[in-house]
Amino acid sequence: MLSVEVSLYPIECQSADDVINNSLQVLGNHRVTYDVGPVSTYITGDDRIVWQGLQDLFEQARRLGGEVSMVMTVTNAQV
After folding, report:
1. Which domains, and CATH codes, for the chain?
2. What gap in Å lies between CA 49 and CA 19, rounded to an integer?
């Protein structure tokens, strides 16, 4: 089981909030639990599914916003 704290930072786009919110929707296609906070989103689930969700999240943000930075803290500790 992995837990990830992830933050997306679209660079030089019209609406960073739209890019972030629309990108987070891809997590609904994965069997992960996620909670959107004011700065970061917290994702928990099976290792492979979480990694795939993170990759899809980044790809969607890149499609929508061009250049994007994604910062993650990954742990397998029970938090």
Report:
1. 2-75 (3.30.70.930)
2. 22
Cβ atoms of residues 1 and 76 within 8 Å: yes
Give the whole-angstrom CA distance, residue 42 versus residue 55: 15
Q: pTM of the full predicted structure?
A: 0.90
By the 10 Å C-beta count (0-12 exposed, 13-18 middle, 19+ buried), 27 is classed as buried
- What secondary structure letter does DSSP report for 40? -
Contact 6, 75 (CB under 8 A): no
50 contact partners, CB below 8 Å, separation of at least 6: 2, 4, 30, 32, 43, 44
pLDDT of 78: 77
